[in-house]
Amino acid sequence: MTENVNREKAIELVNITKHFKGVYANKNINISLYKGEILAILGENGSGKTTLMNMLAGIYQPEEGEIYVNGNLASISSPNDSFNYGIGMVHQHYKLVDIFTAEENILLGFRKESKSEVIARVNDIVNKYGFKINLKKKIHNMSISEKQTIEIVKVLVRNVNILILDEPTAVLTPQETDVLFDVLRKMRNDGKSIIIITHKLNEVMAISDRVAILRKGEYITSFETAKTNERELTDYMVGKKVDLKLERLKILASPPVLEIRQLNIMKDDGTVAIENLDFFLRGGQILGVAGIAGCGQKEMCEALVGLRPYKGYITHNGKSIVGYSPEQIRNLGIYMSFIPEDRLGIGLAPSLSITDNMMLKDYKDNKGIFVDREKARAKAENLIERYNVVTPSTETPVKNLSGGNVQKILVGREIGLNPNVLITAYPVRGLDINSSYMIYDILNQEKAKNTAILFIGEDLDVLMTFCDKIMVLCHGKNMGVVHTKNTTKEEIGLMMTGSKDLSIELGKTYGIASDSLLSEEEWNVLMGKEVIDNGK
Amino acid sequence: MLVSLITNSVAMAIVFLFGCLGETITERVGNLNLGIPGIMCLGALGGVIGVDLTYIIFNNPGWFALMFDAIFFSALFACIGGAIYAFLTVSLQANQNVTGLVLTTFGVGLMKFIGTNLNSPNLSAASKIMKSLFNVGDKLGWFGRIFLNYGFLVYFAIILAIFASIFIKRTRIGLFLRAVGESPKTADAQGISITKYKYTFILIGSAIAGLGGMYYVMDYSGGTTFTDGPIEAFGWLAVALVIFSVWKPTMGILGAFCFGLLYILPMYININPIQLKFFDIFPYLTTVIVLIFTSIFGGKSIQPPGSLGVNYYREDR
Asked: Where do the CATH 3.40.50.300 domains begin and end in chain A?
């Protein structure tokens, strides 16, 4: 489809194949990178983008196929080989030694050159591309974008002509992304060839000259970016026409299941996470929570399931559950599926198999001292089938699965336990479109079963179309609860940044249910009865 | 009495210092070698065999021949232990703790087995020769006795510790070695050979630790207590000392002296055997206290190496 026949190729991948323990990560891939261009490699999670690039970086070895660099057959069996061919990769999870300074990290790539020589080269690069770095600063004291800058400089110092960036924008703010893109354009104009891995379509359109699409480990096609559009790319990426419209199920909501009043929570460092928060959840309704990251969402989730001490009043079906242990809370049918940034941190034991992870939640149902593996395996099989989890077997350690599949297992397991309250935070974080929609679908099915759902999300468009109501948090305070059908993205945006506080503006208290299961007198009794602190 | 307390503590401390230094270097490259007690036993065995061979070859060996052979064979035997450990953990990715413990059992057993059959009348004579260096005796008073009256290995250990400290902190190879121990995937992505570094420094660390065993037999105990020597116990103390010294060789010198003092002190106090047992606890107790303090108050720089105890496999996902 491309017309670059006459241009010189910086890299040519021919029939590259790689599998991990029987699962194909890459299958017969043929991709070329031309000199002086930015090539975007687009694909869903688990489509093999990173694996493919890791073969260029010398981290993995292809089982079949050939790599040509500048027209010559290359054998890349270690990262050093890769650098010798002028290829450098900026990995998604930065490869930096945390306790070293930036300078020490950069020096790791040099054996013979003196320190002053290396620093002179660093300064050259810094001036050329306008980076801002502090060589004496330790990595663990750096912000994410500072770390990325060091990572890029570290690679460039090694005289790299071909630069690979794996999801470089995943952790950057829009402004930082713009700065990065400017640098990349400068590099391209310098004659460097660049590969950027991403699954964000707008970035593909913004930065790339060409785009190659991978799907399920196979190469699909490539386009000149200028001659395609987001819609077309999406179709090729996911393989079938996807309906981008989210559905908001219309269900008659039931009375409040979970009512929360005057919730106060502290963060780990002793600062306020949540301040005097009132809200309630109804069965068959999805309450979205919008807010800038770190506005108390995580702490709120933890408190609701008993993992974090709090002050305040929580009732479940009209009964106070203050001071309940996580186990007691779970026994009431309140479940949480919280997806932390690293996905595996809470909820799943990475080196245990899928079956074992199933057992973690229901081992107590077994009689006697032995666990019932067969039952758990059946559950695992059921879940794999139902949610299309890609895995060699039920006995595969969870850490060997791709992010999307891990998420499906986590969400699927929690839902399999028939909750009446489901607390879910960032369930689609890092997931591709197909997997995301599968998760939304699962949540809608739960909603139809009259489960009360608290949905902590990041994408406002999703919150707007998917949730029934949205509660906006700003620095731990409730800025108001709005019905999604009566609001706009702009309004929510203003509330998120604290410029608009509906409770002050309209003089209304939000988060107190008019049809509370407890009368106000009963609430007063509950709240005045004793100074309640669950004491953990 | 104070002078003899100090000199005896220093003499004892060197056993710990060799072991600690060897283990520190090994841990700095990311491998927790619990085989150190066994490797020290192997080192002791190698040293004794080296001395014996010297007597077979020369009729009346001098200081240099004895010292050279003792060090060479001690390091060689210890390196065999280290090579077993390195092959299992680095090349075959075996669990480091299990491998180390097995190696300790092996080393201790082998020393006892061969040691009982190795009847060497030359050891105490050799020890006398090896312990002589400056021979100042009482000529310089307390100063000479505290600072100048030890065998070569005592000064060697201290110089080695200072050298190791500078090497790890200041040289490029030291930087690479720390990077491998902190984050092997980072080092690997920068083209540093993880396997080469791990093998090299596990072997060097083992050789140094082995000298501790040899020193104990040939210097500290005067060539007398070979087979029933408490070298294994010293090995565990050396491992504890690594934590005590927060992975810094120069801190290891200080820590070794503390441990030496705590070990020697009971002999200078009039106490009964039960109270003596409590004294045995002190080195471990102080290690626990140091661990508690570093965990609570310690910054990032005095934490164990980031990848300590975790094997590295490049294609791991």
From this structure: 9-238, 246-333+420-536
pLDDT of residue A1: 44
Using the beta-carbon criterion (under 8 Å), do A107 and B172 form an inter-chain contact?
yes
Highest average pLDDT, of A109-118, A263-272, A364-373, comes from A109-118
Does the B2-302 domain belong in CATH 1.10.3470?
A: yes
Q: Is a pLDDT exceeding 90 seen at residue A409?
A: no
Task: Determine the residue among A50, A108, A137 to mutate to test chain B binding: the one whose Cβ has the most chain B Cβ atoms within 10 Å.
Answer: A108
In this complex, do A96 and B186 lie within 8 Å of one another by their Cβ atoms?
yes
User: Are A100 and B314 inside 8 Å of each other by CB?
Assistant: no
Flag the least confident range among A47-51, A375-379, B118-122.
Answer: B118-122
What mean pLDDT is predicted for residues B36-45?
95
Enumerate the domain spans of chain B.
2-302
Q: What ipTM was reported for this prediction?
A: 0.89
Q: What's the CA gap between A336 and B37, in Å, rounded?
A: 48
Q: Which of A95, A110, A140 sits opposite B189 (nearest CB)?
A: A95
DSSP string, chain B: -HHHHHHHHHHHHHHHHHHHHHHHHHHHTT---TTHHHHHHHHHHHHHHHHHHHHHH-SS--HHHHHHHHHHHHHHHHHHHHHHHHIIIIIS---HHHHHHHHHHHHHHHHHHHHHH---TTHHHHHHHHH-SS--TTTTHHHHHHHS-S-HHHHHHHHHHHHHHHHHHHSHHHHHHHHHHH-HHHHHHTT--HHHHHHHHHHHHHHHHHHHHHHIIIIITTT---TT--HHHHHHHHHHHHHHTTT-HHHHHHHHHHHHHHHHGGGGS---HHHHHHHHHHHHHHHHHHHHHHHHH--GGGSPPTTTT----TT--
Architecture of domain A246-333+420-536: 3-Layer(aba) Sandwich (3.40)
Residues 105-124 of A with CB under 8 A from B: 105, 107-111
Q: Cα distance from B187 to chain A (closest Cα, Å)?
A: 7
User: Inter-chain contact A83–B191, Cβ cutoff 8 Å?
Assistant: yes
CATH among 2.40.30.10, 3.40.50.2300, 3.40.50.300, 3.40.30.10 for A9-238: 3.40.50.300
Distance of residue A115 Cα from the nearest chain B Cα, in angstroms: 9
**Residue range A274-307, pLDDT digits in tens:** 888 889 999 889 999 987 766 788 888 888 888 8
Residue B170 at interface with chain A, using a CB cutoff of 8 Å: no
A104 vs B contacts (CB less than 8 Å): 175, 179
